[in-house]
Amino acid sequence: MSILSTLSDALPGSTFGPDTPEYDAGRTVFLGPGTPAAVVRPASADEVAEAVRTAVRLGVAIHVRSGGHGSEPAADGIVIDLSALCSVGLRDGDLVDVGGGAHWSDVADALAPHALAVTSGDTRDVGVGGIGVGGGIGWLVRTHGLAIDLLTEVELVTAAGAVVTANERSHPDLFWAVRGGGGNFGIVTRFTFRAVPVDGLVGGHVRFDESDVPAVLRAWRDITLASPDELNSTLLIMPPFGPDMPGGPQLGVALRGTEAELRGLLAPLLELPSVTDVSLAPLDYGDLLEAAPPGKPPFRFVGGNGFVPELDDAFLDACVHALGAAAPTMLMLRALGGAFGRVAPDATPIAFRDAEAFLVVNGVLDPGVDEATVADLQLEVGAPLDRTSGRYANFTQEYGDGVLATIYPPAVLARLRSIKAQVDPGDVFRPAHHIAPA
Ligand SMILES: Cc1cc2nc3c(=O)[nH]c(=O)nc-3n(C[C@H](O)[C@H](O)[C@H](O)COP(=O)(O)OP(=O)(O)OC[C@H]3O[C@@H](n4cnc5c(N)ncnc54)[C@H](O)[C@@H]3O)c2cc1C
To answer: The domain 3-83 is classified under which CATH number: 1.25.40.10, 3.30.110.40, 3.30.43.10, 1.20.1250.20?
Structure first.
């Protein structure tokens, strides 16, 4: 019997093959369409468990899809598309139960009437699943930490096809591993987060021309290091993309406070002569989230990401060096510290808690470029990356054991492998950042 017919027998009504809209939706991720044998769209945790048991019996690969913004297209096996598990329910004041296939827009929209939010990423269409098991560097990261720092419990389907609840008391090792170890430990069907108050938010952006980028970097650094946890910011420095999109730094900012307080905190930046536009106003948390681009941009990106332990002058000089590279280069710095830094480095698998910022730097090349040009550019844009302590899995699209060693310090990786050996000894779950059992 084929994979499709076996699954259809096990899960009639929830299994879809080629030439159905459900198959097309489930096989398509941000990076493009895959070619799995079947897409299963379970309606409950029990159906997820049945899909896992059936896939294990058939010996086929399992690809888990939540928002579809973090995975490679599935070349084979089955996709378990969690999009039907998208409910968001607030209970007991501030606990919010979120289905493993919800989008962050679902969470923001459901919590908005209560003036609550769960810090996520910066994008509406990204899935709760990938961030809930990966990290979540979002708009409230200095105030409340990562999305995983607000997790209090998960309901998860194990490799054995059992539905378990993991929290600090029940399956604590599994609960630790799931908060940053990615999809290696099971399929989360329900995340329970502690929502946080977001009334009285003010934010927006400040744009600058390209005349004095070093001054912008230094002023942003000084503000970031001196500011209260309530100030969150991202500094994005873009190359020019044609006359309608001039390059230059732009600061995105959010504060729980008043506009006067925000302007006071940002004063050294607002006084710079290179400021071209200031737009700051009261807003809702949901206003901070943007729509994702329609798909993978048609470029070859060279560079990477990393946690920045020290925003010292040498690091800022390296950023300026990268921005002067031979190809158009974009650089993003997100302010960390605050609540992110008060989580103990061994409390979750995301260990680089002393970081003052998170960096993404990318040189932009045509897809057909030769490898010598790629290598030269990597040297130039890599200058600030040399001053980072480790990488964030969810922004890292290179894979393998060498890459894993830059994402997790040795003790963390050893603990993850040991937990994997207990909960998934047969190595059923093999996401892109695959952690093999010890
Ligand atoms: C446009 C864009 C903007 C982004 N912005 C941010 C940002 O601001 N901050 C940030 O931190 N990250 C950001 N990211 C990165 C993002 O965190 C990852 O891409 C993340 O994996 C996306 O989650 P997803 O559910 O959409 O992806 P999916 O492709 O659905 O899932 C990715 C992987 O996560 C695992 N997974 C998903 N759901 C579950 C589940 N329920 N249980 C177990 N495992 C699961 C699976 O292994 C899956 O392969 C951004 C990505 C994009 C494309």
So the answer is: 3.30.43.10
